[in-house]
Amino acid sequence: MDHAAFGWLTPVLSYVMACTGAALGLRCTVRALGATGRSRRNWLITAASAIGTGIWTMHFVAMLGFSVSGTEIRYDVPLTVLSLLVAMIVVCAGVFAVGYGRDRARALLLGGLTTGLGVASMHYLGMAAVRLHGDVTYDPMRVALSVVIAVVAATAALWAALNIKSPVAVTVASLVMGVAVSSMHYTGMFAVRVQVTPSGEVLPGATAMQFVFPLAVGLGSYLFLTSAFVALSPTAGEREASASAQRPVESAAH
């Protein structure tokens, strides 16, 4: 097996995707905690979609570099799409637990556990979508370790969303989150064992370039465009500061 068939390109690009999703999700969660009503709900949904999309894109960009000697690799399309939906739905549940929880500590633990298990489920559903000539097995200890890393990483990210407000601190937190998500992915991949059975049969499903690459590029573009929107939209505090600055000017004019 080779986990980086294109060299450092796929690990680095997947890390960038993980960091982008984490940074956007954290910023949206910070905005949500300062909002109420429908606005809070919308910010939380955006945060969940960003984190889920970022993690899924990270996983499959990294999978573009996964190869096994003696067999081609294809992906079951419905299972791959399901892994994306699971990532978004479960992360959404975790983010909403934090966004609406009255007891911060309890909400953080519940949200971190839910989100972490969602990340791990997405990863192993994505691996279940892999089709190759042979049998795939897993080292149980490394699988368990990858799940623990996912839960700890998710809890740390949600804690950062609750306690870190400045853009610089959010950037640092997202870089750390990117390391944690990448570590979870590659720990899970190092748990994989493949027994190749050479065959001339055509494998079902789509190749990575036929399906995963276009979808990953599309979701990556969504992340960057949404990041630009969030970065350019002022926070409630910034709007208040701007309004306060304009009042003296208006008073002087009168």
Automatic annotation (TrEMBL):
One of its GO terms (cellular component) is membrane. Residues 6-195 form the MHYT domain. PROSITE patterns: MHYT. The chain crosses the membrane at residues 12-30, 42-67, 79-100, 107-130, 142-162, 169-191, 211-232. InterPro entries: MHYT_dom. This is Membrane protein. It comes from the Bacteria. Keywords: Membrane, Transmembrane, Transmembrane helix.
